[in-house]
Amino acid sequence: MLSSFFYLIFGIIVIGVIITLLSAWAVKLSNPYRFPYFRYSFDVSGKRNVDLINLIDTFLLDERNRSLLDDYARQLDTWEKQTKAEIESIHFKWLRQKRREQYESILDEDHAYTFSTCRNRTRYNQANYIRTPYTVTFVDQQIQVSLEWLLDRCCQLEKTNFEATLKDWNCKQQRRLMTPKLRKKIAERDNYTCQNCGKYMPDGVGLHIDHIIPVIKGDKTVESNLQVLCSKCNGRKGGR
Ligand SMILES: [Zn+2]
C-alpha cells in the first residue's frame, strides 16, 4: 500500500520535471522578437504600367511623408534600445545568450522600409441565386529599401526643389535639349522624309522630330534616338 503511494508521487514528480524541461526548451527555441518594418502601400487599382520607384518619389515629395520617415526612425531606435535593455536584464545566462542571438538574427535595417502597390478586385459570392460583391486587396509589387537609399533619393529630389519626381525631371531636362538647331540637323539628316511611310515634307509642314525610344522610358535626346516622322505616323505612334 505504502509502496504504490510512493510510486504515484514519484510518477507525478517525473512528469512535472519533463513538462518543465519541455516548456523551458520551447521558450528558448521560439523567437519572441519581430523587426518593426515601415510599411507603406499605394493603391493602384485600375492603373496600368505602374512604376513603384516613381511612386516612392511622389511619396517623398510630400514633406509630411518625409516626417513620417523621421518618426519611424525614432521609433525603431527606441525599440532597439528597449529590446536590448530587456535582454540584458534576463537573469539566466543561457537564456540571455540565446535571446541575444535571436534578436541579432531578426535585425534587418537594410530592408526596413517596405513599399508596395496594391490593387482592389471585386469578387462575387453566389448563394441562393443572389450575387454579392466583395472586395479583395492583393499586393502587386513590393520593394524593401534602407534609410540610406531613401536619404539618397531625397538628396536627388532636392535638386528639383521637391517639385517633380526624378523621372519627370529627367523628361523635362531631355525635352529642353531639343533645340531648333538640333531639329534642323535631324530634318536635314533624314532629308525631310518620314522614316515610317516615306512622305517628303520639304517645307517642314507636318514634320515631327520623334524620340525613337520615348524619354519617359528613360531614353535621351541624342541624334541616334531621333527621327523624322509625319504628323500621321507620329500620332499613330503616340496612340500605341
Ligand atoms: Zn509617315
TrEMBL record:
Residues that span the membrane, as ranges: 6-27
Metal-binding found in the keyword field: no
Gene3D superfamilies for the chain: 1.10.30.50
Domain HNH nuclease per the UniProt entry, residue ranges: 181-235
Keywords for the protein's UniProt record, in alphabetical order: Endonuclease, Hydrolase, Membrane, Nuclease, Transmembrane, Transmembrane helix
Database matches in CDD domains: HNHc (cd00085)
Recorded GO MF terms: endonuclease activity; nucleic acid binding; zinc ion binding
Domain of life, source organism: Bacteria
Protein name: HNH endonuclease
